[in-house]
Amino acid sequence: MAGSQRYLRYILFAFLALVVIFFISASSGVGPGQGYTQKASDLLKGQGSLYQGSGSNTVPAGQGQNDNKLDAKPPAAAKPTIEAEKPAVLAASSTLAAAAATSSAHDTTSPNPKQSSSSTAPLAHKAPGPRMNATFVTLARNSDVWEISRSIRQVEDRFNHAYNYDWVFLNDAEFDETFISVTTALTSGRTRYGKIDSAHWGFPDFIDQEKAAKVREDMHERKIIYGDSVSYRHMCRYESGFFFRHELMLEYEWYWRVEPSIELFCDVSYDPFKFMAENKKKYSFVLSLYEYEATIPTLWDSTKSFMKEHPEHIAEGNSMQFLSDDGGETYNHCHFWSNFEVGNLDWLRSKAYIDFFEHLDKDGGFFYERWGDAPVHSIAAGLMLKKEEIHFFNDIAYYHVPFTHCPTGEKLRLENKCHCNPKDNFDWNGYSCTKRYFEMNKIPLPEGYEKEQ
Ligand SMILES: Nc1nc2c(ncn2[C@@H]2O[C@H](COP(=O)(O)OP(=O)(O)O)[C@@H](O)[C@H]2O)c(=O)[nH]1
Ligand SMILES: [Mg+2]
């Protein structure tokens, strides 16, 4: 009797062992390459949701969709009505979603879009209609490659995948292979790389080197940001007076400046270049603020002597009210932040602008002080353009350390799929000059601005 009980126990153990082996092999066969092993209960859950036809949103992307046995009803079948209701501007993302859903229904691995690897273009929705004669432009060092990559990715995802505008990169040194290959891979339009002429990046001969060196030392001691930097000064002077005259830029009429490590928080579902042209705009901004006074003590003096010398360049109906609180006697330090700009290159190449730049340059403040290209562009636009020619892009949501422009108005933010926090918006902060722009143009402040202050 004891002997037959022992046999019974052996048989029971053997049976249990078989059951365990069966479960292990069944669960490990579900998700090759998924990096984890699903439990049998998870499997059943996945099966249930698919059989119920409750749509792919019940199954996390790339999970539980790989076993052919589960494909009784492809998840794509549950989606079309939602996609059909989407407005035209969402077409690009709908196309992506459809591609992912179709491939996930048939593939045995996680769903990769079927496209060539180096470009976002084949999946992208192309905006119809003609393009403007326009380009993105970035001044950068080779060492900026990863920071500018982040910016490019955002600009492409939010806008340029549908428009494929060119991108011009400028550098005072030769771009290296990594910079070129990485940025080319990320952009949907043509990329072009230019080396800056040494005549445009350096000290003009009339600059007193000793005086300039003393200024840098002094600014260093006073802890003024970039106060001791020579290259920063070359950069500011280049952006003020030369980038639009680079031979690659001569072909274009419009530019959109992009710096490293910026963010775009909303879809831009129309062409800002076209908008500028159709609405007779020449210059634009998203953020404005007060300049650090210690960097520009005599910039306004230089501006005033220019105005005296060249009254013919000063526009009627200009934005003096934005720049000065006393009719032009003193500068209030308001400027448009030029790390974002969409603007007209022909205006920058005009005699008026070049005369202004050359006048400032001769006074030496790029080196004897630390004049930035932001106040230079802003004063030029403020005095030499009609105020209606300067546009505020409320709908282009933007970040450059440390400020955010997050559009005022929830409807706008939702329509454009914005992911910025309205509380971070700088526009209605006391250090912003944007309210002045609204007041000068007699534009009512956007609805709800008080709540977002
Ligand atoms: N080629 C080159 N680009 C520079 C140099 N210094 C700054 N830049 C670029 O000029 C722009 C402004 O410089 P950034 O460091 O962002 O200045 P900030 O935004 O004022 O802090 C960025 O696009 C930089 O990549 C330089 O020495 N050489
Ligand atoms: Mg910057």
Would you spell out the secondary-structure blueprint of this structure?
Blueprint: H1 2-28, H2 40-51, H3 80-84, H4 91-106, E1 134-139, H5 145-158, E2 166-171, H6 177-186, E3 191-195, H7 209-221, H8 230-241, E4 254-257, E5 263-264, H9 272-278, E6 283-285, E7 288-290, H10 299-309, H11 320-323, E8 334-336, E9 341-344, H12 345-348, H13 351-363, H14 365-368, H15 373-384, E10 390-392, E11 398-400, E12 403-405, H16 410-415, H17 434-440
Parallel strand pairs: 1-2, 1-4, 2-3, 6-10
Antiparallel strand pairs: 4-9, 5-11, 7-8, 11-12
The structure holds guanosine-5'-diphosphate and magnesium ion.
Order of helices and strands: HHHHEHEHEHHEEHEEHHEEHHHHEEEHH
Strand content: 5-15%
Low-pLDDT ranges: 24-105, 116-123
Radius of gyration: 30 Å
- Spatial gap, N to C terminus: 88 Å
Global geometry: elongated
Class derived from helix and strand content: alpha/beta
Strand order of the largest sheet: 3-2-1-4-9
Present as ligands are:
guanosine-5'-diphosphate, magnesium ion
The major beta sheet can be summarized as: 5 strands, mixed
Helix count from the secondary structure assignment: 17
Number of DSSP strands? Answer: 12
Helix amount: 25-40%
Taking all residues together, what is the mean pLDDT? 82
